[in-house]
Specification:
By secondary structure, the chain is an alpha/beta fold. It folds into two domains: 106 residues, Ribosomal protein L30/S12 (60s Ribosomal Protein L30, Chain: A), CATH 3.30.1330.30; 159 residues, Alpha/beta knot (3-Layer(aba) Sandwich). It is built from 13 helices and twelve strands. Keywords: Methyltransferase, Transferase. One of its GO terms (molecular function) is methyltransferase activity.
Length: 279
């Protein structure tokens, strides 16, 4: 494949705008969501996005990767044969923040249609619900744990960091493309309407919080729930009191050595491991 490859020698070339100069909000394109894009980094992550049905817009590849016909890169390019492929020397691409972490390849893609809450809940047994988790690193780490530890889906409130932000995708190792997820519409009042929708879908709800009136994480009642939603709150403050009041269970992870809490991403891994076990 050589016909659609264009070499870029100037970092200021307009072809690099989507990779180098558009902000996350500009990529999101709230004014016209159908044209919203995201950037996937590294061949493995790009392939996971392609396998999930994401549509590529263009690729940016280090020139050496094409010259050496690096296997994982060439496999991705075969699947992107209908879109422009831009290539440049490493010296040009290192001006891109974090390029050394991309394994020599980036891909701009259109954002997929956001699933509805009903679609997310249908057929799911265990789901994670994130309330106002604003750090993209935490969101990415939670997705990676959710995919690895038997969560069927993730629901995010409107104030959460978007799972398709570059850092979230990178930290998740592309698992944001492997597990169903959605962001609650701002018109759905949280927690009242959102929690009602979860219960209408048959889910019991477990709030992870630092409260003494809680059940143990290994309580058999939790494991026996046919459908369970695991709620995790924002960094620092955790879940709001109104959300906890709506939940069927409050769960506290036991601590030692005077540690009062875990980071939300670490807490999610503990919760998913214990409550995501197959019956």
């Amino acid at each position: 494949m050589t016909g659609n490859i264009t070499e870029i020698t100037d970092f200021d070339a307009p072809e690099l705008d989507v990779y180098a100069r558009l902000t996350e909000n500009q990529l999101l394109n709230r004014a016209d969501p159908k044209k919203g894009m995201f950037i996937a980094e590294s061949p493995k992550v790009i392939e996971r996005a392609l396998n999930a049905g994401c549509v590529p817009v263009s690729c940016l590849v280090e020139k050496r990767q094409i010259e050496n016909e690096t296997e994982e890169v060439m496999e991705v390019l075969k699947k992107c044969s209908q879109v422009p492929v831009y290539t440049a020397e490493f010296e040009v691409l290192t001006k891109l923040t974090g390029f050394a972490l991309t394994r020599g390849m980036l891909c701009a893609m259109y954002r997929p249609r956001l699933a509805t809450m009903e679609e997310i809940c249908r057929g799911a047994r265990r789901i994670a619900v994130l309330e106002e988790v604003v750090n993209p690193t935490n969101v990415g780490a939670i997705f990676r744990s959710a995919a690895a530890l038997n969560m069927d889906a993730v629901i995010l409130t409107a104030g959460c960091s978007n799972p398709l932000y570059r850092r979230a995708i990178r930290v998740s190792m592309g698992t944001v493309f492997q597990i169903p997820w959605t962001i609650l519409d701002k018109n759905i009042a949280w927690p009242q309407e959102g929690m009602q929708a979860l219960k209408a879908a048959g889910f019991r709800t477990a709030a992870f919080a630092l409260r003494n009136d809680s059940v143990a994480i290994d309580d058999p009642k939790l494991a026996s729930e046919e459908k369970l939603a695991i709620l995790l709150g924002t960094e620092g403050d955790g879940l709001v009191s109104a959300t906890m009041a709506e939940c069927d269970y409050t769960v506290k992870i036991p601590m030692s050595h005077g540690v009062d809490s875990l980071n939300v991403a670490a807490a999610s891994a503990v919760a998913f491991w214990e409550l995501g076990k197959k019956k």
